[in-house]
Amino acid sequence: MNIPASLQAHYDTGHTCMAVGLLLQRADGTTMGLTSLSVPRKIDITPWNSLPWNLAGLTSFEFSPLHGLTFGTLESTAGFEVDETSFVTLNNGQTFLEADLLAGRWFSARFRLFLFRWDVATTTIADDIETLKVGTMGQPKVESAKITMELRCLKQRLQQPIGIVSQPTCRARLFSTGSAQCNANPTGFRHNLTVTGVTDQGRFICSGAGQSVDYFGAGNVKWLTGNNAGIEMQVSSFASGAFVLTAPAVLAIQVGDTLIAEAGCRKRLGPDCRDKFGNVPNFQGEEHRPTADRILSGVGG
Fold this sequence. Notes:
There is one protein chain. The chain has helices at about 5-10, 100, 125-130, 270-275, 290-295; strands at about 20-25, 30-35, 40-45, 60-65, 70, 85-90, 110-115, 125, 130-135, 140, 145-155, 190-195, 195-200, 205, 220-225, 230-240, 240-245, 260. By secondary structure, it is mostly beta strands. It is globular.
């Protein structure tokens, strides 16, 4: 990362007045600024007010002190290994709510970690800030007294599979668009429903869901209201209006909660792609591919 000339001159004096700043933004747009200072600090963030950040035209943003905030060792490597660090804060139930952490609301949130001068009247990016790392947050570790948040650099994206692996079931995500994607039309396959009964954290009933057995199996629900608003969950099975989630919800599901339920796809050519979605030309699997045993069995095997 580039160091502004004026900041480098400040470093050269040997008498630095620097603090750590951390800008965080969740997928739902919730944005938070933290600092190692003992008092709040407003910073001009205009140069950062562009994609992928969604700061709604803000020019000045307040970074708040967080009691007990400490950062781990910051490392940078020349290879493709993912550079990671972390920060630890007290689990005081104020800044980071334990329920939000366990529900995954902070997972993959964007972050920008930087140093800034606090001895100037107005801290600006052009003159007073050195960016150390940008990337996404990993899994939080929640303990009774503290919370540890993992910070991963942008090289984390290079760890994702690249290319296509042949398999009998479809590789595409349902309703994804583009080359070698599903490209099915989602119209008619997303349904607004209301919870009318709750069995436990992983099972609930929507009496208005009259679809056939397993219609929503392997699908998703996105909560619109209630404790889980904004969270998506995967459906394991469905029958007679009753949903069973793949993993229980962290926050309580209540009668009256509203959601969007998306039809499920179990990635099969016949029952799903052909019969359910009428999307055979876009099937991204090789269902009739011979198995390894068949290929190696030889003539007449």
